[in-house]
Q: What sequence folds into this?
């Protein structure tokens, strides 16, 4: 029998098959590693139905799809074999928008004495004005409560937003401090606790006169996070009504199942107090010594309900419902009555907590749809069914603003004003006790970016007026005014031109040859003063709405946070659109 040659395999086909299998498994492993083990993922989502007889929206702007019906996902994951080596690392989720840099807030609470003794353990209410999609005015005040340490200090890393801070402890409270937090900069504030008055009274049902237990009594314009709660007899005692200065402040009472009530307290120079009447026919309540006696009568609430659908009859999930009305809080004085809710998975909503004697306007907003409005008038009822509300395809408006030199006009405010809707028949004034009705137009505004552009999303079909004016404090007049009509689902691009007598005044602020970020720049002209604006990270600034025919006096102030030294400069500018300002040290003794 013939023997195989030495060093050669008896079965060369087995070696070749093994090599092929290793290559196949290697390729499969590489595919799994790159895909994170996910294959065969498909998504399906129904597009919103277009309005009857209307063209589909063009692709370039690609309106987002409403939230209903929900996304249907079918996925299959190939897992590695049990005896394989370490599993491939999971695929990282795509990164979202970068979070804004945190701001450092340092609060120190002291007593009003000669030593400024620290108020250990004082309660500190931090309020922030945050953007809230779908809110009536686009924002809402959000409160957080913190407690100072033994040194009366609070160090807080927070987001950069318009902020209010107030403090209280037992029967003392501070004034409220308002400021804007700036990216990457620490803000320090000292709150001084001062004497307060005691306000006490009862909260009852206006119809039955029975006491309301668990009602909250608070001051919305002072320590708004602080409140008192009524006992089983409807009685409350609020210990921290500020008594450090002569003023008038409002107090509110709220309870589940009732609308809001508000009364105004006036303090006089001699220490006496006065509670104003709700109208010209109600006498004021006065007293010479504390406590301030203040009772509240709460009206039953009205609950608005309805269902929001698109033009195909499908429910719109997560639509924002906002209501606003006004009720009397004094002779000729009216305060807002507001509430908000979102639609559920069926598109239904229930809006509670509003006064049953007040007329309201309701806004219904959802992404990719135009805003809808509804008007409701009270009839001493406790429920209001608005039925089915149909949202139509949204319109969009993009505006580009150019200066007289043909360059993008940055820093101007472009305001969009819709037409005031015609309300249904308004009942007689006697049928609206304590309330007024005013129809509202949809209004929005944005500041032009570096390209001179702004965009308005999710607009209803309407006739609009576009107005352009300076975004800087003290600016007067309107530079551009133009009318535009938008149909359902229409998308419009508008080119706007500034008049020949408006320019942007640009410049750079330096200190000892180095550019200075965060410096305050003001511009004074013959007919207005504008500012302040802050220089950016490169020390540059831009003030919109200057006239080349008028001279401007630039005033710049800056404090070096590392040394505490102050710098400033004043410079007359004539017919210039670009300037460099060199700061000089301030003579502290002078």
A:
């Amino acid at each position: 029998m013939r023997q195989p040659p030495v060093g050669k395999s008896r079965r060369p086909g087995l070696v070749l098959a093994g090599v092929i299998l290793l290559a196949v498994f290697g390729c499969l492993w590489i595919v799994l590693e790159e895909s994170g083990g996910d294959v065969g993922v498909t998504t399906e989502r129904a597009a919103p139905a277009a309005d009857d007889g209307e063209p589909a929206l063009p692709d370039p702007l690609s309106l987002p799809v409403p939230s209903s019906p929900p996304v249907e996902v079918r996925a299959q994951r190939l897992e590695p074999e049990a005896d394989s080596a370490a599993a491939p690392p999971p695929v990282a989720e795509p990164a979202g928008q970068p979070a804004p840099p945190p701001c450092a807030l340092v609060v120190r609470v002291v007593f009003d004495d000669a030593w400024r003794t620290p108020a250990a353990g004082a309660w500190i209410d931090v309020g922030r004005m945050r953007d809230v999609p779908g809110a009536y005015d686009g924002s809402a005040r959000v409160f957080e409560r913190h407690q100072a340490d033994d040194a009366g200090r609070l160090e807080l890393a927070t987001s950069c937003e318009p902020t209010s801070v107030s403090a209280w402890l037992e029967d003392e409270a501070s004034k409220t401090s308002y400021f804007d937090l700036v990216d990457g900069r620490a803000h320090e504030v000292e709150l001084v606790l001062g004497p307060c008055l005691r306000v006490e009274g009862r909260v009852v049902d206006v119809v039955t006169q029975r006491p309301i237990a668990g009602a909250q009594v608070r001051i919305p314009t002072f320590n708004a996070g602080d409140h008192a709660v009524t006992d089983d007899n409807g009685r409350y005692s609020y210990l921290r009504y500020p008594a450090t200065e002569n003023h008038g402040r409002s107090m509110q009472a709220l309870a589940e199942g009732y609308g809001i009530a508000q009364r105004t307290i006036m303090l006089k120079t001699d220490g006496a107090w006065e509670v104003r009447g709700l109208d010209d026919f109600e006498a004021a309540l006065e007293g010479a010594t504390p406590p301030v006696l203040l009772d509240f009568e709460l009206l039953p609430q009205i609950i608005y309900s309805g269902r929001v659908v698109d033009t195909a009859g499908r429910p719109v999930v997560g639509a924002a419902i906002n209501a606003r009305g006004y009720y009397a809080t004094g002779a000729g004085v009216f305060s807002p009555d507001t509430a908000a809710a979102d639609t559920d998975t069926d598109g239904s909503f229930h809006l509670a907590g509003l006064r049953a004697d007040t007329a309201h306007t309701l806004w219904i907003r959802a992404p990719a749809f135009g805003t809808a409005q509804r008007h409701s008038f009270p009839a001493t009822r406790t429920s209001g069914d608005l039925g089915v509300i149909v949202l139509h395809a949204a319109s969009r408006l993009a505006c580009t603003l150019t200066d007289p030199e043909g360059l993008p006009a940055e820093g101007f405010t472009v305001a969009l004003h819709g037409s005031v809707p015609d309300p249904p028949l308004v009942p007689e004034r006697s049928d609206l006790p304590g309330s007024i009705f005013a129809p509202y137009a949809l209004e929005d505004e944005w500041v032009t970016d570096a390209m001179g552009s702004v965009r308005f999303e999710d607009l209803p079909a309407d006739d609009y007026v576009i107005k352009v004016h300076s975004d800087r404090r003290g600016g007067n007049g309107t530079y551009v005014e133009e009318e535009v009509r938008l149909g359902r689902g229409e998308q419009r691009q508008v080119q706007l031109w500034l008049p020949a007598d408006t320019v942007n005044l640009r410049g750079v602020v330096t200190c000892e040859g180095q550019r200075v970020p965060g410096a305050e720049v003001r511009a004074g002209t013959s007919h207005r003063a504008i500012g302040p604006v802050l220089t950016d990270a490169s020390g540059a600034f831009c003030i919109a709405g200057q006239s080349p025919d008028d001279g401007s006096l630039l005033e710049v102030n800056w404090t070096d946070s590392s040394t505490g030294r102050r710098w400033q400069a004043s410079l007359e500018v004539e017919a210039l659109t670009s300037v460099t300002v060199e700061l000089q040290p301030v003579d502290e003794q002078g």
About this structure: The mean pLDDT is 74.
